[in-house]
Amino acid sequence: MVLPMGRDVAVWGAGASGDGVRLRMGGREIAGTAAADGAWRVVLPAMPASAEAMTLEIVSGEERKVLDNILVGEVWICAGQSNMEYPLSSAVGGKEELKSVAAFPRIRMCNLSGVSTANRPFSDAERGRMTSGAYFQGGWVVPDERSAASFSAVGWWAGKTIHETKDVPVGLIDVSVGGSGAEAWLPREVLEAREEYAPLLGDDWLESPRIGAWARGRAKTNLGGKPGAHPYQPGFLYDAGVRWWSGFPITGVLWYQGETNAEIHDDAWNERLITDLVFGWRKVLQQPDLPFFMVQLPRIGGNDPLRQWWPEFREVQSRAAAKLDGVTLIETQDLGWDGPNVHPPDKRPVGERLGKAAARR
Question: Was domain 2-70 assigned CATH 2.60.40.10?
Fold first, then answer.
């Protein structure tokens, strides 16, 4: 695990009413008391970057929990759709990179994997995970050849670049989901606040033309004609993968998304989605200045008619980033390809460009 440097970090839990709570870390001890309902919240004072592994001991009443091997540095959320999700093992040069990842123990990965939205019906077990508390599974790991194989290639190379540039520990939280539209990442508070989002909130969201035809078709296949939640459902991925980090100071967001929304060729709508996502995350995560680094869609070839809208969507991304404070656009048009799908496999230059921008902030 990596805790954010230079920021107070809240630790919370539940016990018995009136129980004393003690936190010990890095030679400090902080005390608190559980409230009448048993809830407690104790704040760890800000700490400088530290590559020395520390232990956090939490004692509440008769209960004791110990978290080991904690570093202090920068913590980044990696989110978006399949080009962020694209695993290191499949990227150009990825297998060679995996042989050296263990040499970077000050990079920590929180790889939160969701249910695959491959072109098939969900199993009963997969349908059972369609809740905000069960969808993502995983936790913090130290990189090695096995643990990093399935991690985001863009996220890894961005994090490695930040780490090498700033010489601080880096924690990477990957919650990306292939095929997901921006609406799935919007906080419900944002969706409910705008009248134009109302068609996205009903049980018939799969019929809304405001959600791309590809995403609607894939979701219908996954659900097999049965009612139920789906990761492409508006608000679902925010609830499942982002909301949990509210109150935990995030250094910034590495965002690579737009392939799904590009087919909704309504510039004003797409710009609103991007803008509301940035403001929504900042509000609910309680970080009004949270930096966003947004990868612009690359050049893409091929005959798929949906790709004709990518240049227009790049303009939408450019306008949105120019209007929003603290949002940096990472141009990648020179890094695209003419392959058979929307996944250029050379992720290293994208990740390094993203990491260099993030390290300069």
Answer: yes
